[in-house]
Amino acid sequence: MTEENREYRQLPIGVFDSGVGGLTVAREIMRQSPNEKIVYFGDTARVPYGSKSRDTITRYSRQIVRFLQTMEVKAIVVACNTASAYALDDLEKEIDVPLIGVVRPGAKVAAEATKNGRIGVIGTEGTIGSGIYATYIRQIRPDAEVIQKACPLFVPLVEEGLWKDPVTDEIAMRYLTELIDIGIDTLILGCTHYPLIRETVAGIMGDHVRLVNPAYETARELKEMLEERGLSNPVFPSLGANPYRFFVSDGAERFKQFANSILPYGILSAKVINIEEY
User: Which has the least CB within 10 A, 29, 32, 87, 121?
Assistant: First the structure.
């Protein structure tokens, strides 16, 4: 391995999301690829993405990618289902850094896991409206019946920390009853916030329904891609080094508090940047 190649492999992974939900993806990358450095951007000033247009989400995503490229990242994870649905194809044509979205890995696992061919997808209005999960699932399993359900209240409930709360239980029951009645055997948690209420969803759906967490599957696919392309970092971060850096477009203190409630490592700071400059 040349010194230049070794240095390139030690560059960070860029991860971005509309806000804090993508931290569930960052958490999985930390667990599955502990050698990798991460630069995370949360677009907290412009959240949520789920109710915005394709053009707006694509514009936001381009700005964020330009920012991440200034941080010299070696790969970028679009840790937002809505941005993955609306912007990923355009971004892949525009930059030469490897890109991974959260939709394809989850869709692939669900298509392969289902036994009765009935797959549920829950997500934001934007993700569900795009139909992107159904498109990817049917590429792998054309006979699949994909039942999609927008669950717009889940994101604010998660961000308020109401992960185990009677209010969340009640809302989840209202959203999920339709999927239970249809008899799905696989359910995709099609928003990066949703793994934080996985227990609630699992309790309502029952043991016979497999829950697919795209955050986990995306981190696994990232690890495989880095290994295949010879991009894996061979060096574990040295003691005292800070391998994880966090940036937001607003509300750094609140972001930091939320991040410290779910990440395996405490973060000391999150820096606010003006993303509109990129």
Answer: 32
